[in-house]
Design brief:
heterodimer, A: 47 residues, little secondary structure, 1 helix, B: 11-stranded mixed beta sheet
């Protein structure tokens, strides 16, 4: 491709095997006041 | 260019950007001032991406009820409704949470941990945050509950990640040793420049607290030997140039930094008002420049809100269901009352039950479960919905009187931080590639 360069492939995981709920609740992280969800880690990916 | 539904990120030239904008606004791209062959080339590339599920990908219908249904996995324990500081912007009414000063008893804490175990379903990984006011004012209970939590982990086959949020004033060597051994993540409140910190975070006697804190914060973090921590500052209308506070924290040697906009009613002299938002957004740009420059010069640091995990981030269901407040996350007061999160404490209509009486009404939990990016009108059409997940329900309630109506100033800030996070990721990826080539 000459006009478009993909920096990151599709990354939002969907479907079977997702939504296990084991990841950290986002407000238990650093902020405590302003939610940012996408900087949370997927527990499965961390393993 | 971000493909909202897939999370794919593309770097595009100006012509492609214009063509995508035309498509988005239902204009014929061939009316743009580019040659037909160039336009067709871009359209071909876009169709290739579309086929690969990386452009214009369709959303997947997810029943958010599948996620976190009735399961609480995370608690914020209000160990002390008291504080040894009198921060002028404190959302918790300088530790009282609009009630009276009190400490959580060990009995209430034990009941809270038992409540967590009994309501955590098949979740194995649980979280407990020791919060306040200032939790070090009730440190024997922190220790006792950590020990009790370890017992319960074995009994229920769970793992608890304990975290602690502290202003450091009462920290001593014994506490440091315990915290660095037992506590997975420590959040230290420190606002940056001495004069900024001291102006708004005085002690009970009205003196600045900066000098009481900094040396202990450094020592604690040194002792963590790489263990997780954040130095968390708050910025207000007084320091819209908060990049200077991040720089001050960097100069002290901290490399895990969070700087949060203050949460206050507009009547407060410290509140971030609508008229301040443009300055805040511009300051995020300044901070991004500083972060990239620092990293390029080998001084790596992390800014919490510019950190987006593009490769190992959360799944769609997590991104839809948000921070978990009132669903999988709850706060427990010293009296044992259960609230959807720490920010709701004191708003009596949000009491969900009490760990001492065992009462737990799930109707509020259902309401919070139903409050997500798919049900909030403003969020559903927002490009950043899978990054912020609908924002803070407590802020929404405090500013708009409804958990369903996002606090728009916070949206503006979140969107800019997300744009910057995408930009940083792209810049660093590009740098990595050029280093590989050379």
């Amino acid at each position: 491709m000459t006009h478009i360069k993909t920096i990151n492939n599709p990354c939002i995981k969907k479907g079977n095997g997702t939504g296990c709920g084991e990841c950290q609740a986002s407000c238990q992280s650093a902020c405590k006041t302003s939610c940012t969800i996408a900087n949370q880690k997927c527990r499965k990916e961390q393993k | 260019m971000l493909d909202v539904e897939s999370g794919a990120l593309h770097s595009v030239d100006e012509m492609t950007y214009d063509i995508v904008r035309a498509i988005e606004t239902s204009k014929d791209p061939h009316t743009l001032p580019y040659s037909a062959s160039d336009i067709d080339e871009v359209l071909f590339e876009l169709s290739e991406l579309k086929n690969a599920g990386a452009f214009d990908s369709k959303g997947v219908s997810v029943n958010s009820g599948e996620f976190g249904k009735g399961v609480i996995k995370s608690l914020c324990l209000h160990i002390a409704h008291d504080c040894n500081l009198r921060c002028k912007y404190c959302f918790a009414d300088t530790g009282e949470f609009h009630g009276s000063r009190s400490l959580m008893s060990e009995e209430v804490g034990r009941k809270a941990l038992e409540f967590l175990m009994e309501h955590s379903g098949n979740r194995r990984h649980l979280e407990v945050d020791f919060f306040g006011g200032e939790p070090l004012m009730n440190f024997p209970v922190v220790k006792a509950l950590t020990a009790y939590g370890r017992e319960l982990e074995k009994k229920y086959n769970k793992e608890i990640a304990f975290t602690l949020t502290t202003n450091m004033v009462a920290m001593d060597d014994e506490m440091m040793e315990f915290i660095n051994r037992e506590i997975y993540n420590v959040v230290i409140s420190l606002d940056g420049r001495r004069e900024i910190h001291d102006a708004l975070r005085p002690t009970v006697n009205g003196k600045g607290s900066y000098d009481l804190i900094v040396h202990k914060a450094k020592k604690l973090i040194e002792g963590r030997k790489g263990g997780e921590y954040y130095v968390r500052g708050t910025f207000t209308a007084n320091n819209l140039d908060f990049t200077n506070d991040v720089k001050a924290l960097r100069d002290l040697g901290f490399d895990q930094i969070s700087m949060e906009p203050v949460v206050l009613p507009d009547t407060s002299p410290y509140a971030i008002l609508e008229e301040h938002v443009a300055a805040v957004l511009s300051e995020y740009d300044n901070l991004a420049d500083y972060l990239l420059e620092s990293r390029k010069n080998g001084c790596w640091f992390n800014f919490f809100h510019f950190m987006v995990d593009f490769e190992g981030g959360p799944c769609l269901k997590k991104r839809i269901s948000g921070c978990g407040a009132g669903v999988e996350y709850a706060a427990i007061t010293p009296e044992g009352d259960i609230y959807p999160c720490h920010q709701f404490v004191g708003e009596k209509q949000f009491i969900m039950g009490n760990v001492l009486t065992g009462e737990f009404d799930t109707s509020l939990q259902k309401e919070f479960l139903n409050c997500n990016v798919t049900t909030k009108k403003l969020c559903n059409s927002c490009w950043a919905k899978y990054f912020c997940s609908g924002g803070c329900a407590a802020n929404a309630f405090k500013y708009n009187g409804s958990i369903y109506e996002p606090y728009i100033r916070s949206c503006s800030m979140l969107k800019r931080r997300t744009e910057i996070a995408c930009g940083i990721f792209a810049a660093e990826k590009s740098l990595e590639e050029s280093n590989d080539i050379t």
